[in-house]
């Protein structure tokens, strides 16, 4: 999905238009709220999708990063 976001942003589409589909991915799991917060953070919109993905994974489950 990160590759798809990268390709979309290369064509001028904000990657946040793609990332909104990831918001419910962790629904019902511990850490899901923080996962959504990272992907929705407007301060990260200029960062690369891979960097935001790494931050979201770290926020959701620190042992996975």
By DSSP, the count of extended strands is 0
Instruction: Look at the helices and sheets and give the structural class.
Output: mainly alpha
Q: What are the segments in which pLDDT stays under 50 over at least 5 consecutive residues?
A: none
Q: Element order, helices and strands?
A: HHHH
How much strand content do the residues show?
A: under 5%
Count the domains: 1
- Outline: elongated
Number of helices: 4
Q: Whole-Å distance between the termini?
A: 17 Å
Average pLDDT taken over every residue: 90
**What is the C-alpha radius of gyration, as a whole number of Å?**
11 Å
Helix residue percentage: 40-55%
Main beta-sheet annotation: none
Secondary-structure map:
Elements: H1 2-10, H2 16-19, H3 32-40, H4 49-60
Helix pairs in contact: 3-4
Describe this structure in words.
The chain has one domain. α3 runs antiparallel to α4 (49-60). The longest helix has 12 residues, at 49-60. With 65 residues, it is mainly α. It is built from four helices and no strands.
Give a brief rundown of this model:
The protein has 65 residues and is an all-alpha fold. The protein has helices at 2-10, 16-19, 32-40, 49-60. The radius of gyration is 11 Å and the shape is elongated.
What attributes does this structure have?
65 residues, mainly alpha, 52% helix
């Amino acid at each position: 999905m990160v590759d798809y976001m990268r390709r979309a942003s290369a064509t001028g589409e904000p990657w946040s238009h793609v990332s909104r589909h990831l918001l419910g991915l962790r629904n019902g799991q511990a850490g899901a709220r923080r996962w959504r917060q990272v992907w929705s953070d407007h301060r990260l919109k200029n960062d690369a999708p891979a960097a935001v993905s790494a931050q979201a994974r770290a926020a959701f489950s620190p042992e996975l990063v």
